[in-house]
Amino acid sequence: MKKTILLCPSLGILSGCAKVAHVNELLTLKSLSDNQTQQQQYVKSENKKFEKLLEVVKKGRLAEDFPNQQAFLKAFGEPIFTKDVQKDGQALQKWLYRYTSKLKDSPKVYLYFSSSGRLVHYEYMEPPENKKEN
Length: 134
Hints:
- The chain is an alpha+beta fold.
- The chain contains four helices and four strands.
- The chain has helices at residues 2-21, 23-59, 62-65, 69-76, and strands at 81-87, 90-98, 108-113, 119-125.
- The protein has a four-stranded antiparallel β-sheet.
- The N and C termini lie far apart (90 Å).
- The model has no long low-confidence stretch (mean pLDDT 82).
């Protein structure tokens, strides 16, 4: 009987130590889970912005509704990619918008801005599987 009475508190103390020993690992796992949730929310938000851009492009209202870089950034956020290019003898900045997590099978919108930030030209490219064969 005395052994049982001494054994119960000892087991309680030892099991508590085991929990404390793994707290850092448990907190790391929780942090990873929270981070993945935030990443999924970010991707979803960015994809919604891109779908809005696709609607505007398909309506043919891009230059009228969003004539400069500031308007684009406000409406659609940061582009996936930017690059300085020469086109028709003019120095332009090229921006790419596409779905965040799709690399190859995504429609793409390329925007070309002048050095003053004005939209000069844009290109809409459908993904390969959606293109009609000639």
